[in-house]
Amino acid sequence: MRVILHEIRHIFRPGTLILLLAFNLLFYWMYLGFYFQHFPNGRPSMDTYDIQLKMVERFGSRMDAEEFQVFKAEYEQRKLVADERIAGDPEFAKYGFHNYEQYQTRAGENPFSELDEHIDFSLSSDPNTLGSLFWELQSREWMIEAYEGGGEAELIQWRALESSPAVLETVQRRIDDGSMTSIQSDTAVRYYLDVLQYSSLLALVSVLLITVPLFLRDRHNGLIQLQYASATGRRLFGKKIAAALCSAFLVLSVQLAVLAVLFSQKNIDVFYHIKLHSYLNFWPVSWFDLTFIQYIMLTIAAVYIVCLLAVLVTALLSSVVPNYMAIIGSLAMLVVVFVYWGRQPLITDLTTINYDRLTQPLLYGGLMLVISGTLIFRWRREKASDIVG
Amino acid sequence: MNGLTDSFPTSRSRIPLWLRLIGYELRKSLRGPVVPALCAAFLLLNVFVMLTANAFPLRGEIKMLSGIAEKYGIRTEEPGYTQLQADYRSGMEHLNEIAVEKEGVTYEHAADFWAAQSGKAAGSTASDPTDSTDALPPDPSTVPPSHPSVLSNPTTVLPDSNPQNNGFGVPYTEEELDEFYLTAVMEWYAVTPDTEAFYRNLDVQNYAEFQIGKFGLSGSAADVIREQYAKLDERTEEIVSSGDHGALFFPGPMYKMHSLLFKTMLGFLIFESLLLTVLVTGTIAKYEFEQRTAAVVYATRRGRRTAADKLLASLSASFLLTAGLCAVTLLIFFGIYDYGGLWNAPISSYFNMELDFPYLTWTPLTVRTYLLSALVLIAVVQLIFAALSFVLSGFLKNSYYVFAGFALCYGLFVMLPSIVPRDASFWIYSMFTPFYLILNPHGLFMGAGTLLYEGKEWITLSVWSGMIGFAVLLGLKRFGRQNL
User: Fold this and answer.
1) Which domain of life is it from (chain A) (predicted)?
2) What is the domain partition of chain B in residue ranges?
3) Do B398 and A336 touch (CB under 8 A)?
4) Given 3-state DSSP classes, what are the helix, strand and coil percentages for chain A, each rounded to the nearest 5?
5) pTM (2 d.p.)
6) Which of A4, A298, B259, B347 has the most CB atoms lying inside 10 A of its own CB?
7) What is the pLDDT of residue B26?
8) Is B404 within 8 Å of chain A by CB?
């Protein structure tokens, strides 16, 4: 145990700590910070989000048929307000608009830029402006449409992607048993997925950074002979790997704590205990009926597993490669593979019907099997390896 | 080390010692599985990128177009162009002859023929083709030319090998469809829109204001942008008078060949050779410390002057690896995508435009000269990176910290413009770094975006070469006295 603690201290030497900190800050500055600073990101996201917050407050986690009628009545009320304001506005009269519907049907046409300016669709416009009201109406419209569509749009979309019958059946079952009527916010879920996408990369590269020199540095410093002659001897191999896993766990937990604090600044916790599947939330459609917080926990666990597996791979590489060039080169490829092909199935698209139900268990099982098998093989070799050369 | 002792030759002393030492340094670092394996992996990745590009299924059409360029030339003022127009007209006549015979209709444009056929294939009710007598000639500036889009539209059924069931549900044979397709491609160029008017009416200053607004610039930063766009306006006149604006090119909106070659492929090549450069330099520079031979090597008669050999070895390795990787990748690329007669097509051509603003190069550049200039620039940038890593290695303990230090440097310089105030022209100059320069390899040597400054490439490269050269000399001097 004492040896492991020493090794952990060895891993977090000042140079590595500075490097780790600098990398994390730079990464936050370049990618992650944006999502924390801009939530909800623009319009109509912020309008939609406001409405959805109010919906949860009023209706709870589900909106049944009666509540939907209330929601529709609300829309009609807001529309009346818009009608009144348009009717009394000479700017609209210029273009021949006397109510919202007239304006709405022709709003997509181009030459209204002066009118658009008058309405003020800008990001910062006051909640009382016409712009805000129109954004709100637009948001309510698509939500009503999504509810009334009864999942038909989703089915068409999944059919167009030539999904397997199992996928279509799952989507159909969700629609039939009414679980799609939950009030989940697309904005909140998207926010989490965006943060997850970048923070999983941050976590992976961070743990790789601290593990790279694990064995390589000792060999470069000529410590092998000393280590093998000590009381701990070749058992050090296992202890060093344990130390690397503990250090990685520590780094991941610190990152998780910081990110969790940053993430929870925006009060999206309203949506945590609501099911993911909803007409208002397009993604992710899961094989299982999960709540938002369950999905968050699941993906966090996945980040831990992937990162700890990556630590094992790095430790193995560190124990065999001749120099830093070899290990950095191979890890660079590994990160590219992770970003392009690994991140989706392993982390962000967990349990989604994008992949077959068995894909992820097989993927994780296979990775664990191959990596632990190689590790055991390497450990056996280590016990009997020649230290000269 | 044992590999080295047996290779110290005694009879090769005619080769100067420094040159031999460079050779040994190169062998120490490039030998073995690591560098070749990395190169192979990068090549595989590049080939994968080429094969999954959007243009890959369209390479037959690309070949057809470069064939037209070979046959008729690429410039509207050349006699070949008149020939092309004549051939297009006779092709159109032939198309209508067959169309009357088989469908009982005529088409004004070959594009209409394809639109009608794809309408039938999609099962929708195609508009009566005779209605389109007043159809406008295809205008690539607003929409992609309609005929290639017909074929590349994934929902469209391509003609298959069976003429009775050619996917369109119409009685045309495959040969006829092929011929009509060629006619449609020729039409796109023969019935050319008024490119000259487009270039003359290009509201360049409006783009300047757009960029200024987008980045919230003011003061002298905004002035520099305005001034550069004013220069670009003059340059546009030059392009028009030289006739480059109307020269044949791959239809930009459809194939995006400029982006594929110069953004995607060169982008991958740049970052792969960067990785190789920094890795190899770090390894060469820190080799003796990491293999625990420093005490021996630096105590010899040549001693610390081997650092200079290591520097030259790093630079040569960087150049060799960059050149090799680029050469093999581009050979494969041009094997897949046939540029044929378009090697001399000007980048500034209207037809090369992919979005709403054309690629306006500051000097007349063709595909060939643009590619060569970009490759030279990449090679020089990699040499600067090699030198920078070498300087870093003088301060950092092992090659691992050298790679990491370089990566942090990279991140900081790329983020530099976001911390510099946006009201002073320094904001523009903060982008004059090799790190920033290679972020947009498809926008080099041209006026686009905020980094359009004429001559930014050679200014950046010469200033940085000078600075890095100076730093390297200081570093070598410092190393001569450093406590090891």
Assistant:
1) Bacteria
2) 2-55+249-481, 77-191
3) no
4) 75, 0, 25
5) 0.85
6) B347
7) 92
8) yes
